[in-house]
């Protein structure tokens, strides 16, 4: 199923309706790549695997599809043309890797659907027969702070030198490429401030991007995005952009999500998506997650029913969540739909 220009919001509503009123988004990518043996101690982070081990990315996408995900997100969050050039790659090589990130996700979808059509069992040892279902591929766009790899995606503080035009120029070519890559939509993730949301919205309109997008912000207090900008003001920017078909929150502790859903719903009628992290805290200096307030899969999933009742219709996980988390979310939502 793909989206085109025109009635994009209606198509998202149709997609959700065909999924039973809700859709399951996948979980953390980097965590799983490391579990499969990848070394991500690099400014490119998970995008490093586009160069070194694309087969691992495909494996993780498949793990999430087998766990019940309806939407898988490409490994392009930290994949920027500027970042690839800093590693010595040409502009053409960088653009090819961006396209490759989406192609890998599409390959995983094809493999899964082929196995499901044959009535295969999953490979995780759960003795579950794979089910054919609607699956979308979302092309991930990380923030300017993610490219800086200095933790500023978790503060939203870019400094006075970074203007609206700076951000638009930084993201423009990547957005153009991903929009033509075969993805069903673009996932603008972990947006840390209002300025970057405005840059994305203007880019989508200026470049006449033909596929829809979602805007997903991150918060550290349940009221504002990490920069201190109001969540409501940020969500209003997304609401006013015709290409945006869902608005939400990611990479935020689960305990804040319920209130954030309510804040978003006050300013938009677009579908709300939430894919929190495990509740742990990222230490930008040490470049690792600190297990302070993390919750086990059981605790994480205990929130899911409340998020659904509050109005979230796309639910998944972000950093430090796993296929087991997504499998539990899928089961929880399926039970509530029955």
Radius of gyration: 18 Å
Mean of pLDDT: 90
Q: Which parts are unreliable, with pLDDT below 50 for 5 consecutive residues or more?
A: none
Strand content bin: 5-15%
What does this structure look like?
- Strand 4 (185-191), helix 9 and strand 5 (213-217) form a beta-alpha-beta unit.
- The strands form two sheets. Strands 1-10-7-6-5-4-3-2 form an eight-stranded parallel beta sheet. It has a two-stranded antiparallel ribbon with strand order 8-9.
- It is globular, with a radius of gyration of 18 Å.
- The two termini are 24 Å apart.
- The protein is 44% helix and 13% strand.
- It has 338 residues and is α/β, with parallel strands linked by helices.
- Residues 11-333 form the Hcy-binding domain.
- InterPro entries: BHMT-like (IPR017226), HCY_dom (IPR003726), HCY_dom_sf (IPR036589), Hcy_S-methyltransferase (IPR051486).
Structure at a glance:
InterPro entries: BHMT-like, HCY_dom, HCY_dom_sf, Hcy_S-methyltransferase. By secondary structure, the chain is of the alpha/beta class.
List the helices and strands and how they pair.
Elements (H helix, E strand, L loop, with lengths): L7 H11 L4 E2 L5 H6 L12 H5 L1 H14 L3 E3 L7 H6 L4 H27 L18 E6 L2 H5 L15 H16 L5 E7 L2 H13 L6 E5 L13 H10 L3 E7 L6 H9 L6 E4 L5 E3 L4 E3 L6 H6 L1 H7 L1 E4 L7 H15 L1
Parallel strand pairs: 1-10, 2-3, 3-4, 4-5, 5-6, 6-7, 7-10
Antiparallel strand pairs: 8-9
Please supply descriptive tags for the structure shown above.
44% helix, globular, transferase, 338 residues, HCY_dom, 13% strand, alpha/beta, Hcy-binding domain-containing protein, metal-binding, 10 strands
């Amino acid at each position: 199923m793909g989206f085109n220009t025109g009635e994009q919001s209606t198509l998202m509503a149709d997609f959700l309706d065909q999924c039973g009123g809700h859709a399951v988004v996948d979980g953390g990518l980097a965590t799983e790549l490391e579990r499969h043996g990848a070394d991500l101690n690099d400014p490119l982070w998970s995008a490093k695997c586009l160069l070194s081990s694309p087969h691992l990315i495909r494996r993780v996408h498949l793990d999430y599809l087998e766990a019940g995900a309806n939407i898988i997100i490409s490994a392009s969050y930290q994949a920027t043309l500027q970042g690839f050039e800093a590693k010595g790659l040409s502009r053409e090589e960088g653009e090819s890797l961006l396209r490759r990130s989406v192609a890998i996700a599409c390959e995983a979808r094809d493999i899964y659907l082929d196995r499901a059509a044959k009535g295969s069992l999953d490979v995780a040892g759960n003795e579950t027969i794979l089910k054919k279902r609607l699956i979308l591929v979302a092309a991930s766009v990380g923030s300017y702070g993610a490219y800086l790899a200095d933790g500023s995606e978790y503060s939203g503080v870019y400094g006075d030198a970074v203007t609206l035009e700076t951000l638009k120029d930084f993201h423009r070519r990547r957005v153009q490429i991903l929009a033509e890559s075969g993805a069903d939509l673009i996932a603008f993730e972990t947006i840390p401030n209002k300025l970057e949301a405005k840059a994305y919205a203007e880019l989508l309109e200026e470049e006449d991007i033909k596929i829809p997008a979602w805007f997903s912000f991150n918060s550290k207090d349940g009221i504002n995005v990490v920069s201190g900008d109001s969540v409501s003001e940020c969500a209003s920017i997304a609401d006013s952009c015709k290409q945006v078909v869902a608005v939400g929150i990611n990479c935020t502790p689960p305990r804040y999500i319920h209130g954030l859903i309510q804040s978003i719903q006050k300013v938009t009628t677009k579908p709300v998506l939430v894919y929190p992290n495990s509740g742990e805290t990222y230490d930008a200096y040490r470049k690792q997650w600190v297990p302070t307030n993390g919750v086990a899969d059981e605790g994480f999933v205990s929130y899911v029913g409340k998020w659904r009742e509050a109005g979230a219709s796309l639910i998944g996980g972000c950093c430090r969540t796993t296929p087991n988390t997504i499998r539990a979310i899928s089961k929880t939502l399926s039970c509530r739909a029955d």
